[in-house]
Amino acid sequence: MIKVLKPGLQTTVQDQGRRGLYEIGMPPSGAMDQFAFRVANLLVGNHPNAAVLEMTYIGSELLFEQDTRISLTGGNIPPKLNGQSVPMWETLEVRAGDVLSFDFVRSGARTYLAVEGGIDVPLVMNSRSTYTLIGIGGYEGRALAAGDVLKTGDLHQCKVAAGTTIDKSYIPSYGKNHEIRVIVGLCSYRLTEESRQAFLETEWTVTPEANRIGYRHNGQRLKFVEREQPFGAGSNPSNVTDLGYPIGSIQVPDGVEPIVLLHDAVTGGGYATVATVISTDLNRMAQIKTNEKVKFAAVNLDQALKIRREQNEIFNRIAESLSS
Amino acid sequence: MTNSSLTTRYEYGGDEFVFVQLSEAMSLEANFKGIAITRKLKERNLEGIIDICPANASYMVRVDPDILHPDDLIRELQQIEDSMKDLEIEISSRIVDVPVLFEDPWTHEAVMRFRDRHQDPNSTDLEYSARINGYNSKEEFIQAIDASPFLVSMIGFVPGLPWCFQIVRQEKQIEVPKYVRPRTFTPERTFGFGGAFAVIYPVQGAGGYQMYGIAPAPIYQKEQTLPDFQDSIVFPKQGDIFRYRSITREEYDTIRSQVDAGTFTYQKKEITFTPQQVLEDPEKFSEMVLRRLYHD
Fold first, then answer.
1. How many domains, chain B?
2. Carboxyltransferase domain: from which residue to which, for each copy (chain B) (predicted)?
3. Cβ distance of B58 and A248 shorter than 8 Å
4. How far apart are CA B228 and CA A160, in angstroms?
């Protein structure tokens, strides 16, 4: 059992996500940084889809009531065990009575805590991920609160020795200026030529509206091609006949402030989408904080698939290094 | 209404999504085409497909590109589209009686609270919508919504929200703008209208559609205690035909107590129809649907 002494800013139970329900309007939820999530589970020998805790900006304070092993990956919210600094991206031994706490975030935005066996909460539609908007999944459908008691599950597959770590070259670094790769498309034909250029050339600033639903960016106003709106689309030039929104898709309601939709986003609506963040860079999007800078860089599908293969390759090498 | 009015656009949504726009404008024809293609795709059971999401005049497919290359999927989709030029399909779905209390106290309170975000702060959403659609009164406007059933053309936004497109000729279709600035509050089960679509909000939350009334029965129930929610937490399915029936406060209260007692079920009938039947004569089809729902 793990007792929550302080919850942190927004700590939720997440796994790979709730897949296959997009058509009923259910977003996948799940860990925002899937790379950090997967490595965290590897470091404690868990099943790849075991649930972890995702902490945002401010870490939790947790009391362990059992001996176990844990790992911490993702954004650097410096962890401490009984007040002593402990490393991230490493298998850590904890004893019953130990308290895990965190310093102020140093880089990145989200830290993942995996515990041997995974966090045990009921499966809701095949996933343990929290979706707070309608209050399902995770711990009672909400972010953790002080006094909550977490149980650990049985998704432990193999013992990993304390002190096991991954090659430093595989650990991502998180700066304050981010290049996020996108495939331009969907309804990008709605933007004027100049605005399509401006979208890629502007250095955008992440606004305080940046969470699991989406990230809103401030920069400059984008313009849409003048037209008589098609029937059913709605009156604003940024409106289209309501359609589905891919995860990572970017919309610009009224031409003001591009929004990148993320894992808890609405699944569809009436705003023109103009580009989509590639799957690999959704992990990096998860580590961006308010006021940091983002530039969107266009890649084509072949490049996106190559980047995806390289990322998978890195993960496979990490997995191999841990199993040998 | 012919197929030639539609031009299909295939787009990548990152490396995991393929987005297919069948038409920029909403039409029954575009919606039926999307239903037909996505149902056929589902039947093919291709490995590597994670989600198939039909929408109003478009659809979207999520793949695992390590298993199914998006370009291979697009070729498959083009082939399906070519094979069904004449929309010769049958759609099996449900006709459902969906009661709505128009001008209820709860949405009216929200209507008044957010007047400053509306294009016409001096009238209600109903009065404004009636006027811009050429109706003499809000009563006539409500009558037009009540008179002909709607096709559930898309599910999404949040779990279970049905976009509904009325089965009438285009010149009779209602069209209204969304609020100038979205509201921060919409009551649960609000019956609203935006663009050419009627919706019911499954849960309380933000929203930008005009608000006309409230449904006594849920369309989303996470506890799954009502009989209609045994198999899924959401009730509407794309292709369903909803008749929004204007009810009295008395009937509203009766249905609410049935919902609380866990005994409420929607009045519904199975139906199989072809897009041609609807497109050839929407009025005749609508009459047939209502007869079947209430008299067969």
1. 2
2. 8-227
3. no
4. 48
